[in-house]
Amino acid sequence: MNTPGEAEPPSSRLARDSLIVGAATILSRLLGFARDVLIARLLGAGPVADAFLAALRLPNLVRRVLGEGGLNAPFVPLYLAIKAERGDEAAKRFAGEAASRLGLLLLGFVVLAEIFAAWVVLGLAGGFADEPQTLALAAFYTRLMLPFVLLTTLAALLAALLNAEGRFTVAALAPALMNAILLAALLFALFRGGDSHANATLLAACLSLTGLAHLAMILWRLLGIGLPRPGLRWSPDMSRLVRTGGATLLAASAAQLVLLISTQIASTEPGSVSALYYADRVFQLPLSFFGVAMGTVVLSAMAGERSQADHDALLGRALALGLALAIPAAAALYVLAEPIVSVLFENGQFNAADRERTAAALAAFACGLPFALAAKVFGQVYFVRRLPRLPLIAGFAAVAVAAVAGFFLLGWRDAAMIGALAASLAFIVQAALLGLNLLQSGLWRPRWADARTILAIVIAAVLMVAALEAMIRPLLSALNPSQPGLWRAGALALLCCTGAAVYAVAGFLLGAFDAVLPPRLLRLRGASVRTPRS
User: Fold this and answer.
1) I want to staple 170 with a disulfide (CB 3.0 to 4.6 A). Which of 79, 221, 278, 407 is the partner?
2) 452 near 511, Cβ under 8 Å?
3) What is the DSSP annotation of 412-426?
4) Percentage of the residues of the chain whose pLDDT score is greater than 70
5) pLDDT of 20
6) Which residues share a beta bridge with 410?
7) Helix or strand run (H / E) with residue 226
8) Cα dihedral sign for 405, 408, 413, 416?
9) Which of 353, 359, 336 lies closest to 420, judged by CA?
10) How far apart are CA 123 and CA 55, in angstroms?
11) pLDDT given at position 529
C-alpha cells in the first residue's frame, strides 16, 4: 500500500482500472453467454427464433460499437481538452449539448425505424424477403427493441463522461446489469411456459427495459459529479465534435465490420455460421477483457497526459499490459481449441464434426488476438490527438483484407475457419498500419524496456505452451465427450490453471510484468533471482 501522501504509481493505476473494466466486461460476456443458451432452449429453431435473432442484430451491433467504449474515442479527448482550456463548467456544458443533440437525432431515427421496421429487417437479413411471415415477426420484434437503441446510446455517451472523469466502475458494470435483467426474464418465461411467440415478445420488450436500466444507472452515478445541463445551442465545440466524431467512431468500429465480413464468408456454407458464432463467443471473452479495458482506461489516461515522454511511457505500459494478457490467451486458445469447444458445446445436437469445425475457427481467431489488442491500443493515440484519418484508412484496409482473403481462400478449408482466418489477417494488417505510422510520424518512440518486456512475455508464453502440450496427452481420456460433464470440465480447468501458473511464474521471473507491477513486487522479484553471495 502507498504511504500517506504518496501518489499511486501510474502503472499500478493503469493495471487496476484496466482490471476493473476488463472484469466487468468478462462478467457481462459470461452472462450474455448464459443468455444465449437460455434463448436457444426457450425459442428453439424455426421462424420465431430466426425472426427474434435477426431483430436482435441491430441492438447487439449498437451495444458492441457504442456501449463498449466506442463513443469514448470521439468524446473523451475533446471533453478533457475543453476542461483543461476553459474549466469544468464549460466541459459539462459541452457534454449537455452533445447529449441533447444526440438524443434528438436518435429520436428521429427511432421514429423512422418504427415506421419502416420491415425495411430495417431486410437490411439485416435480406433472405426474409421470401418469407413474409418471418419478416412480419422480425419487424414486430424490431419495433419492440428500437427504444433500446435510443436509451443505451444516450447511456453510452454519458458513460463516456464518467470515463473522462476517471469513474470507470459503474459504466463498466452496466452491461452486466442489462444481461442479468434479460436472464431474469428468460428464467421467468421458462418457468411460466407458453408459446415461443409470446416468449419472444416478452424478451424483446425486456430488452428495451434493459436500455432504460442502463441509462438510469449511469444517471445515478453522474449525480455524484454533477449532471450535465441539456442544451440545444450549436457551439464551436459541437462543430469540432462533428468534424472528427463521425470518422473517429467509424474507425473505432472497424473490428465489428471485420466480424460482419467474416459472417458473410461463413454464410456460404451450411453450418458454418453457427460454428463461427460459437468460436466468436469464446474469442470475445479475452478480447473484451483486454480490448474494452484498453479502449476505455488507456484513452482517458492518454488524454490526461501532456508531454510526449508521458505519452510514450503510457503507451508502452498499455501495450505491455495488453500483450501480457493477450499473448498467453491466444496461445492457450490455439493449443486448447478443441478441448475448450468440446467441453463448452459438444452435447446433444452439437456433434464431433461441429466440434472440429468450431475448434478450427477458434484457433484461427486466436492467431489474430494479440494484433486486435495492439490495434486497439495504437488507435487510442490517434483518437487522443483527434487524428482519425489514419485509423479510418487502417479500418477500411482491414475490412478489404478480410473480404479479399475470404474470396481467395474460400474453398480451401471450412468456411467458418476461413472467415475467422480472414478476420485475423485483417487485425494483423490494421495493427501493422497503425503501429508503423506511429513510428514513422514520431508519435511513439518505443523504449528498450518495452521491447525487453514483450520478449519476456513471448518466452513465458512458449514455456506455458510446452507445459500444456505435455499435459494434454495424459488428460485425453478425461476430456473425451463420453465422460461426465463435470469430469471433462475439471480436466480442462486443470489444464488452464496449470498453464496460467507456469506462465505467471515464468513471466514474473523473466520480468514480463515489470511495466505494471508495483515497486514492492519488483523488489521481491529482484531478491528472488539475485544470486546469494558465498
Assistant:
1) 221
2) yes
3) TB-HHHHHHHHHHHH
4) 76
5) 64
6) 413
7) none
8) positive
9) 359
10) 11
11) 45
Angle at 215 (CA atoms; ends 214, 216), nearest 5 degrees: 95
Alpha helix (H) residue ranges in 87-195: 88-115, 117-124, 132-164, 169-192
CB within 8 A of 223, min separation 6: which ones?
Answer: none
pLDDT digits (tens, 9 = 90+) for 432-457: 999 899 888 877 777 777 788 889 99
| HSE-CB of 321 using CA atoms within 13 angstroms | 29
Question: Reduced to 3 states, what is the DSSP secondary structure of residue 410?
Answer: strand
> Is residue 9 within 8 Å of 518, Cβ to Cβ?
yes
d(CA 441, CA 433): 12
pLDDT digits (tens, 9 = 90+) for 147-161: 988 888 888 888 877
The answer to whether the beta carbons of residues 97 and 241 sit under 8 Å apart is no
Q: Which three cell numbers, joined as nine digits, stand for 366?
A: 486466436
* CA pair distance 519, 50, nearest whole angstrom: 54
Q: How far apart are CA 377 and CA 311, in angstroms?
A: 12
How far is Cα of residue 362 from the mean position of the Cα atoms in its chain? 16
Neighbours of 436 (CB within 10 A): 12
CA distance 357 to 345: 12
d(CA 98, CA 114): 24
Phi-psi region for residue 350, left (φ > 0), alpha (ψ -120 to 50) or beta?
beta
Within 8 A by CB and 6+ apart from 99, the residues are 154, 157, 158, 228, 230
Which range of 342-346, 393-397, 414-418 scores highest in mean pLDDT? It is 393-397
Any residues with CB less than 8 A from the CB of 136 and at least 6 apart, and which?
Answer: 118
Q: Which of 510, 403, 415, 504 is nearest to 455 (CA)?
A: 510
Q: Which residues pair with 413 in a beta bridge?
A: 410
Q: How far is CA 58 from CA 125, 193, 311, in A?
A: 11, 27, 36
Dihedral sign from CA coordinates of 199, 201, 207, 213: negative
| Per-position DSSP letters for 47-104, written without gaps between them | HHHHHHHHHTHHHHHHIIIIITTTTHHHHHHHHHHHHHHH-HHHHHHHHHHHHHHHHH
Report which of 128, 127, 147 is spatially closest to residue 137, judged by C-alpha positions: 128
pTM reported for the whole predicted model = 0.71
Give the count of alpha carbons within 13 A of 278, CB side only: 26
Residues sharing a CB contact under 8 Å with residue 422, sequence separation 6 or more, in sequence order: 261, 262, 265, 401, 402, 403, 405, 406, 409
Nearest to 388 by CA among 496, 248, 261, 268: 248
